[in-house]
Amino acid sequence: MGFFSDLKEDLSQAVNELIPEEELKTDAALNTEETPEAKADEVDLEKMLENIDSVVTDEAEKSEETVALETLETTEEAAKETVQEDFSTVAETSEIAIDEVVKEEAAEKENKDNRGTEKKMDANTEKAVLDETSLITGAMTINGDIESDGSLDIIGSVNGNVTILGKLNITGHVVGNSKAAEIFADGAKIEGEVVSEGAVKIGSSTVIVGNISATSAVIAGAVKGDIDVKGPVILDSSAIVMGNIKSKSVQINNGAVIEGRCSQCYADVNPTSFFDAYKTETKKK
Question: What is the pTM (predicted TM-score) of this model?
Fold first, then answer.
């Protein structure tokens, strides 16, 4: 506003300078009134100056409105950015919470599964062997797995796995794995693994095609497979073994035939460590 007031004064001064000094003196001396043209010029000049003031005022108001609008737009953009940041933060937090919930559910499920497995194992361990013996006669053929809490005598044929908590006597034909506390086979034909928690006795004229695992074994028949026994193994004179033998000790009677390696890996004395110690003592001497 100061700039335009100065402009008004400069314009007034310029107009005064344009009027001849002699006319001003003559008018003053004669005390005559101003002509209509001069008055019109003064009015026009005053109107121009007033218009300039109004234009300046309008421009100032417009500039203030523009600044206000720009400030409002800046505030709105800042608010939008803040809202977006808050939304992204909430989304990240919710994702983290969901991941934690999923992990907790998976851990609980795993714990439940482990508990279920432990319960099943405990149930199987706590089962007592019943004092009863089942019989599969020679005229019977069973297709399917067999499980029993007692003992079982198989004279007929079984096409399936046999799991017995007691003793298992086989004089027939079994196609499948056999597991029991003790296993005795005489004149039998077994195609599958034979696993015993105790002793295994294989009579003469018995043929087993499969691996044998037990704590002790007496073999008088034919075995095609590996023999893994934690205790002693006795091979009778009629025994035929085609496979490797791992045991604590081995007794081989005259006439027994073995095709495979024989390792007393469960013995109290380790031959490798014995000879290593012997070499060390020899070097010292």
Answer: 0.54
